[in-house]
């Protein structure tokens, strides 16, 4: 962003970017945009893409086991703040990074250094996601392309590792332990989880190779993904928000939503284009029809079936799941008998400087005044979380905070800002575009503070204790 808007001799300022985009609008106007401009939110296909993104985005969040695992594993005192701040920080990627590279690709298409010069990018190149690498290569040469490749590699490995763990967790605990071996030991579960990671890794690689071989790219997958998984969005959401949803309502909503999404998708492609193939099924209107049909049908069917004979689920059952872990005991475990006061049982004598809470032993250093967190301190923190889980008022406050912030931020980002600009057919002036760029810079710096500075600040006590430990050992 700094290179594009400050130091690049090809662009170098918001004003120059604005002029290049105005020129590009004359040379290569965008169908469906106000006056063919790149400087407007009045984009018919942009609105369609936004609806598709909303449907598929809800699916990838509500149905991603990784999100559920993080939410359940997180402390209730911090989970809400973490998710809100994480979402706020994530938006810096499309708003700052992606928008800058996308606009740069448009602005520099007529530059002799652009890889496709003198021709614009083809549809297949755009759908393959090559706009960003082309822009980076034009601006920074080969180092720019390499830097973007590294960024892409880190993003793919991060998301892939998260999905590997998520799928492995489902197959290990929800399938293997639940239906095949309920009394599996910890070593057996670890072994099975490793096997599942390898198996799912091979499956992902196989599917990626198949998609590439038949000509399906990421753009097509992104548009189609929502209509396949959209039917399960509301049934999954209702499982943790509506006690009246029944098993039949949840299952039927998912399956009927999937069927409706696929049907609407293929019918629209056939009616609009007369043929069903990869190109026609990746069109805007067929995928829009499929996404909306899948999500809305899943909602309607789940609610309708559940209302016939509503359930009355007891939420205390779900709270009890974490309580067992916080108490440090499994159902199958029984507390070990303690030796009589003042006596030691053979084999249980404690070594000096050992803290033993019945399950875990950890060395302490009594000659140090600043020990790192001990097992006892961790137990106190877990007990604090247990009290929090038992406090309905505290949980209610977190719930209200999550709902209010989610609704307000969603309304601002999805409606308050873009819709008035869309309906008014507004085209950015130079000052308006400059303000947009400045806001994107502010957002990126805020994301940096959230992801880079805030974690260090919140763990400042740990770093202080660690530094004291290191220097004391050096002196010794």
From TrEMBL:
GO terms for molecular function: urea transmembrane transporter activity. Residues 347-359 have a biased composition (Basic and acidic residues). The keyword Membrane applies. PROSITE patterns: NA_SOLUT_SYMP_3 (PS50283). One of its GO terms (cellular component) is plasma membrane. Signal peptide: none annotated. Gene3D superfamilies: Sodium/glucose cotransporter. Coiled coil: none annotated. The keyword Membrane applies. Keywords: Membrane, Transmembrane, Transmembrane helix. Pfam families: SSF (PF00474). It is a multi-pass membrane protein. It is found in: Membrane. Its main location: membrane. The chain crosses the membrane at residues 45-63, 83-108, 145-168, 189-214, 220-241, 248-268, 288-308, 399-423, 435-457. Residues 326-382 are annotated as: Disordered. Belongs to the sodium:solute symporter (SSF) (TC 2.A.21) family. This is Uncharacterized protein.
